[in-house]
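Sorry, any thoughts here?
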Amino acid sequence: MDTGLELTAKRANNLNACVNCLFADNRRGAIRLRGNGSTLIANSDFVRNEGNPLIDSDQPVGIVSSRFVAGSSGSMLDADAICEACRFQSAAGSQATIARAGVRVILLDSEASMPLGANASGCWSIAASPAVRTRAC
């Protein structure tokens, strides 16, 4: 599949949620959102997807207790994503990063075994491998 879920709003579209979802093996990202405010993703798995980023949104997205298993490349998150209790796992030989280059993200009480991303910023409270530089919130 090219994109797992695409929601393009033509008028006010708020409070969408993806709960207990599996996004796997998508070639052009897992979720693409345009004009959707206050989207929440909870207890979902993102496995072997490709895309830069996997969750592509023009509005902040809240992600809770979800798992990201990297594909071969790309990034998991777009600008202003807020993650709590998430796991970011790198696959063997993967060049994937948590955040798209140059964006700001917030990661709270999360775990990571992949790098944050080139020139990415924000605050995070994560248990990380030595490959991830950390800064307290």
Notes: The radius of gyration is 14 Å.
